[in-house]
Predict the 3D structure of the following.
Amino acid sequence: MHTLYQGCFVKQDSMPQNIKIVHYKAGNIASVINALSRLGVRASLASGPSALKGAEKLIFPGVGHAKPAMEALKSTGMDQAIQEFTRPVLGICLGMQLMAARSEEGNMKGLGIFQEEIKRFTGRPKIPHMGWNSLYDLKGPLFKHVSEGSHVYFVHSYYMPDSSHAIARCDYGGAFTAAIQSDNFFGLQFHPEKSGPAGITMLKNFISL
Amino acid sequence: MLTKRIIPCLDIKNGRTVKGVTFGNLQDAGDPVELAAKYSGYGADELCLLDITATLEGRTTFLKVVEDVAAMVSIPFTVGGGISDEKQVETLLSKGADKVSVNSAAIKDPKLITRLSQAFGNQCIVVAIDARFDGNRWEVMSHAGTNATGIAALDWARQSRDLGAGEILLTSFTADGTRQGFSLDITRAVADAVSIPVIASGGAGEARHFAEVFDRGRADAALAAGIFHYGVTTIEKVKNYLKAHGIEVR
C-alpha cells in the first residue's frame, strides 16, 4: 500500500521532492545535478547532517580516492548521518564503495551498510574497468523498464565481488556486483547519470521509490 | 562484455567547433553544444572536447561550452587543451567534465600526472600523446604538434601509466586528417605496453578503419572528428559495421 501511494505521488510531475545530494570532496556533483534536472527534478546539496532534515531521498555520488573521501565525510559527521538515514539512499560508484564494510583502497573501514568488502581489480587486461559494459540478473524496482543486457558506463579500479545481495551483476574477467540493495540503501557501481537512456530510467525509478 | 568505444572529438576555438588537416587549416564545423547533443543521440559512447584557443577570452567561452554540454548530454566526456594545474582541473570537473586530458604541460612536468591523479583519481586523468613517425621511430610532439620533443612515444606512454595516468589518448600526427586509417602499429605497441585503456586517434576515414584499430591495433576506443562532422560516415554506420564483424559495441 505504501509503495503504491508513493508511486502515485511521483506521477504528479509538478510535486516537488526534497532530494539531497551529499556534498563532499569526492562528489561528481555537477553530473548528478544535471541528470536530475533533465528529469525535471531539482536537488540540493547537503554538506552536513543538519541539511538532511526533511530530505526524502539521498544521493551519495563519488569519484576519486576512498580514503580522503571517507575522511571528508567523517569531518562533517555525514558518515553517521548517511548510516542513520531511513529513506532511500543511492550510492553511486565510490559512494557505493564507501557504504561497504571495508575497502582495499587505502585499506580502510567503510560505513558498513553493505557487509561486503571492496577489492582491487587484479589480473584484468586493463585497469581501470572503463567504458560501457552490460548488466545481467537485474532485480528490484531500480531496474523497472531496464532490460537485461543493457549497457551502462563504468569507470573503476576497485570492485565489490559477486554477492548474494546483488541486484545487478556485470562481468569483467569474472562476475562482480554492479548494483546492491540492503533495505533502503541502494548502491550502483556504474554511473547512471552517464549511462544514456538506461541510466536515466534508473534515476527516474529511484526518484519514484 | 566491455564494449569498444566510439568517441567523436570536437576541437573548439572561440566557442565554435573547428576541424583542420594535420593540426592546421581550420574550418568551421558548427556549434559544439548542438553537435555534442546530436552525437550523444546517435549513440556516441563518449565525447572529447578540446580547447584550441590560446586567449583568455576563448577560455571563458570554452568553460561555458563545457557547462552547456554537461547540462545536455548523459554520456561521459573528456576535456583537454592547455591544462597545466590542479585548479584548472577542479574547475573543469566542477563544470561537469568527467575526465581531463593533459599533454604539453605533462611533458614539461611529468609529475603533474601524479599530482592530478592523486587529487582527482586516476580514472579521470587522460594523458594525450601526439606522436609522429619520422621514418624511423614514433616521436612525441608537444604544443599541438609544433614541437618535436625527442621522446619516444612508447616510452612516454609507459612512463605516463607509471606516473598515474588512467587512460592514454594516442593521436597519430602522421595519420591525422588523412582519412587513410589509424596508425595501427604504434597503437598496438602502446596498447600492448600499458595496462590502462588506450584511445586511438587520427586517420579515421571509414567504418573499416575502426574495425582495424580495434582488431589489429588493440585499441579500447577510437576517436574521430572530421568524418562525423562532415557526414562522411555516421556513428551508427560505424557501429553496424563493427557488429557485423563481431566487434562488441553498445
Q: What stands out?
A: Residues 56-72 of chain B form the longest helix (17 residues). Chain B has a mean pLDDT of 93. The interface with chain A takes residues 1-5, 40, 45, 70-71, 74-76, 93-96, 98, 118, 120-124, 166-167, 195-197, 220-221, 250 of chain B (CB under 8 Å).
